[in-house]
UniProtKB/TrEMBL annotation:
PANTHER family: UVRABC SYSTEM PROTEIN A. One of its GO terms (molecular function) is ATP binding. The lineage of its organism: Bacteria, Candidatus Buchananiibacteriota. NCBIfam families: uvra. This is UvrABC system protein A.
Length: 915
């Protein structure tokens, strides 16, 4: 049907021949437990096929730049619209990418500043007005008098640092009666044929006239002609016959033009010596647009490129538009006596410092000297989005009729795009914020804000958990934004676990019933409000939680208070306002607050960084896994003497042995990493196989059963099970190894079996199956049961780390901690551990966290999920807003105490869950 997307026989990943129909122009939510197949259906089937069909509709010439896309493993999809994916992937790792450039707001700012900006002199700070013709004549005559010159050559810079051949341009000026031009610093007759490289930048000045200074009418005519041909620019060129400078070396100005480099900075008072036919010459640039009458400083062009830190015309000359300098410190590790020279090692440490030339503002002084309503473009970019929105609304209200004629549409577009970012809860960000510092959730919402501003219709949008990182209050705003996207005539599919968003959707698709091989089926589908009714016959795990038939179990009472706590005094990192707070130990402490309120600053920039310094004793061993963040220390430094950063005091660290961050980063970035290798289960499994009678007869050792070492692995694929084949003009293809057929080991190794299975077949077992397989081997099953307890029984032992979700990776890390933390008094820091987790998964996560606490450990977690906040023993609420208006301690205490605090926004929403 035309009013719906019909899918038949979807089999991507764990999907089991799924058939379903999704209505167009609706807000559709896909939900289900982690690993149930939501993303496989939404992204790898619906979006992937929509994108592939769009690319197939393009010309062969366009397709060659976009690569080949395999059809999704599905029998049929009907009614599919052009698809746009808005996921949580990092926007860019380019340090030049900012929130402003990604949303194109900065492009509009550049246009606004070029058209309506007020120009101020970078030298004296006075406002610069345009030079009239008479003022130009007076400046030329005064310079001639200073240099004792009788003649001046007037040139018109018609091309400044631009690519092209310009044959026709030079011919046109010859027909106008001009006979000479200066091209890239050299004079040429226009009668001769000058060949210019098409793809190189050139500067061309047409010689208008060489006139006597006393012939004012002819001088005026020459200057006026130059102005007309160049839109306001005039070059005055003098022979240097002055007795003051003749025979003396003249210092070259830093504000000079060099061939092929344009006019980076121009000063009418500082001459540039040029070697011409008649000896040393001096030249000055004048402008009918912007020239300072007090010190002669002239802007060559006030164009949008002047405000681009990605262009040599606008970028700071010192840092080239980065706003910072990367310094590399070379350290030589001296070899011991007797070692060869080849064994010397150079160690380089990277340090980043603020560029002192532009003070981190990325732009050259001329660019920063143009202001709109008293602020330059860097200052507007540095304030929060909320402040920027207010700034432009106020500016729009004060615009004159002439200003509105010129750029009212630009100001309205800027304000609209800022408003879209406010709607998705990004009020605390600034336009100058680097893209690589954004979280996945922030990056996704920036894309979402940009899409709303594009005003597309009849498009299918697919979003992956857009509520990540959002407070309940901001989630309400986001829902309004998603509905406005739908009201523009679009279809919106969301993969989501947030209860408020699910209840606000129009259509509901629940996948399951469980994860992995036990999932991949549609267990409930229909209009959301109908499915939420208790008398609806459709049943699913998600609906049970939503209908209140099943609840996330929490402790019947809070853990009692103890005297042990980490006391933070005077925290001031980022936007924190001298915060003083206690973090009770042997409890679960939850940090809450709206986005940008200072939660991460308190937990990581203050607590984690400084406790690491306090607890570190040389030598500090670096963590063996990327799962844990570590502070880098310089070699030979006494860590105990390092001063605390962004805090006055931290007390109580003697109550803990270490501090560990457990995040959702991958447990490995190659297919060789898997749950068995990461948790250490694979080592006892290999030891077990090495002790089997057949292995001992053959002389096989532990290394024989490793796919990372020669001997037992398949050498055709080096133990990977597959090979990467380069296709030159086509995308590389990964194919199963023809020798081992994906089993990773050679034939002799696979002949060793236990209970009818070889080492490769054991790695293919799920964790649930492996517990039964190794039922009498407690060294293996004890670790497997921990993985089962955190809800990962459906994963295969040898499942590639690259296929695991963030939530799965985090729970694997927690499981590994559970296997070796007894009595270690560790403080665990977690940032939104419920990201990507279903209600059922949250219940399992809480059990794991409580187990860690029962073993005398402590948990401090940043969280927006009300189920976790409800289950916490102690809550620290920061706010009251984000950015500059945040950073205060709003409330602290048990969840019951938080809901009774009228100042707490979190308490308002938490009250609904404590009823």
């Amino acid at each position: 049907m035309k009013d719906q997307i019909t899918i038949r026989g979807a089999r991507v990943h764990n999907l089991k021949n799924v058939d379903l129909a999704i209505p167009h122009n609706q807000l559709v939510v896909f939900t289900g437990v982690s690993g149930s197949g939501k993303s496989s259906l939404a992204y790898d089937t619906i979006f992937a096929e929509g994108q592939r069909r769009y690319i197939e509709s393009l010309s062969p010439y366009a397709r060659q730049f976009l690569g080949q896309m395999k059809p999704a493993d599905v029998d049929e999809i009907i009614g599919l619209a052009p698809s746009i994916s808005i996921d949580q992937k990092a926007l860019s790792h380019n340090p030049r990418s900012t929130v402003g450039t990604l949303t194109e707001i900065y492009d509009y700012l550049r246009v606004l500043y070029a058209r309506l900006g007020e120009v101020y002199c970078p030298k004296c700070g006075r406002k610069i007005d345009k030079l009239a013709l008479d003022e130009m004549i007076d400046i030329i005559k005064n310079r001639a008098k200073e240099l004792n010159e009788e003649y001046v050559t007037i040139l018109a810079p018609v091309v400044v640092d631009r690519k092209g051949e310009y044959y026709q341009l030079l011919y046109d000026y010859l027909n106008l009666g001009f006979s000479e031009a200066r091209i890239d610093g050299k004079f040429h007759s226009l009668h001769e044929k000058v060949k210019l490289a098409r793809h190189s930048k050139h500067s061309i000045d047409i010689v208008i006239d060489k006139v006597m200074i006393n012939d004012e009418s002819r001088l005026s005519e020459a200057v006026e002609n130059a102005i007309n041909y160049t839109n306001g620019l005039v070059v005055a060129l003098f022979n240097n016959n002055s007795p003051l400078t003749k025979g003396k070396k003249i210092k070259s100005s830093p504000y000079q033009r060099e061939a092929g480099k344009g006019w980076p900075k121009i000063s009418a008072t500082t001459p540039k010596p040029l070697l011409g036919k008649e000896g040393i010459t001096l030249e000055f640039l004048l402008s009918s647009n912007w020239t300072c009458p007090h010190d002669g400083f002239a802007f060559p062009e006030v164009e949008p490129r002047l405000f681009s830190f990605n262009s040599p015309h606008g970028a700071c000359e010192k840092c080239h538009g980065l706003g910072k300098l990367e310094l590399w410190e070379n350290k030589k590790k001296l070899a011991e006596e007797g070692q060869e020279v080849g064994e010397y090692r150079n160690q380089y440490e990277k340090a980043v410092e603020l560029c002192q030339a532009c003070e981190g503002q990325r732009l050259r002084p001329e660019s920063l000297s143009v202001r709109v309503s008293g602020k330059n473009i860097a200052q507007v970019s540095a304030i929060s989005i909320e402040q920027a929105y207010d700034f432009f609304i106020t500016y729009h209200n004060k615009m004159t009729a002439r200003q509105k004629d010129i750029a009212e549409n630009v100001v309205i577009e800027i304000a609209d795009r800022l408003d879209f970012l406010l709607q998705v809860g990004l009020n605390y960000l600034s336009l100058s914020r680097e893209a690589e510092t954004l979280s996945g959730g922030e990056a996704q919402r920036i894309r979402l804000g940009s899409q709303i501003g594009s005003h597309l219709s009849k498009t299918l949008y697919v979003l992956d958990e857009p509520t990540i990182g959002l407070h309940e209050r901001d989630t309400e705003r986001l829902i309004k934004t998603l509905k406005s996207l739908k009201e523009q005539g679009n279809s919106v599919i969301i993969v989501e676990h947030d209860e408020r968003t699910i209840r606000a959707s129009d259509f509901f698709v629940d996948l399951g019933p469980l994860a992995g091989s036990q999932g991949g089926q549609v267990v409930a589908i229909g209009e959301t409000q109908e499915l939420l009714k208790k008398n609806n016959p459709q049943k699913s795990l998600t609906l049970e939680y939503l209908r209140g038939e099943r609840v996330i179990e929490t402790a019947s009472h809070r853990r009692t208070a103890t005297s042990e706590a980490i006391k933070i005094i005077g925290a001031r990192a980022n936007n924190l306002k001298n915060v003083q707070v206690d973090i009770p130990l042997r409890k679960m402490v939850c940090l809450t607050g709206v986005s940008g309120s200072g939660k991460s600053s308190l937990l990581y920039d203050v607590l984690y960084k400084n406790v690491q310094k306090i607890k570190a004793n040389p030598p500090l061993a670096a963590p063996t896994s990327s799962a844990f963040r570590a502070t880098s220390f310089r070699a030979g430094e006494d860590y105990r003497k390092r001063e605390l950063e962004d805090v006055a005091k931290i007390l109580g660290t003697e109550y803990i042995n270490r501090v560990v961050v457990v995040d959702q980063s991958p447990i490995g970035r190659t297919p060789r990493s898997n749950p068995a290798t990461y948790t250490g289960i694979f080592t006892p499994v290999r030891e077990f196989f090495a002790l089997l009678p057949e292995s001992r007869e053959r002389g096989y050792t532990l290394s024989r059963f490793s796919f990372n070492r020669p001997g037992g692995r398949c050498e055709a694929c080096a133990g990977a099970g597959s090979n990467l084949i380069e296709m030159h003009f086509l995308p590389a293809v990964t194919v199963e190894c023809e020798v081992c057929h994906g089993k990773r080991f050679n034939r002799e190794t696979l002949q060793v079996k236990y209970k009818g299975k070889n080492i490769s077949e054991v790695l293919a077992l799920t964790i649930d199956e492996a517990i039964g397989y190794f039922d009498s081997h407690y060294q293996i099953t004890d670790k497997l049961k921990v993985l089962q307890e955190v809800g990962l029984g459906y994963l295969q032992l040898g499942q590639s780390a690259t296929t695991l979700s963030g939530g799965e990776a985090q729970r694997i890390k927690l499981a590994r901690e559970l296997t070796h933390t007894l009595g270690r008094k560790t403080l665990y820091l977690l940032d939104e551990p419920t990201v990507g987790l279903h209600y059922h998964d949250i219940e399992l996560l809480l059990k794991v966290l409580n187990k860690l606490i029962d073993r005398q450990n402590s948990i401090a977690v940043i969280e927006h999920n009300m189920h976790i906040i409800h289950a916490a023993d102690y809550v620290i609420d920061l706010g009251p807003e984000g950015g500059d208006r945040g950073g205060y301690l709003v409330a602290k205490g048990t969840p019951e105490e938080i809901i009774n605090n009228d100042k707490s926004v979190t308490g308002k929403y938490l009250k609904e869950y404590l009823k």
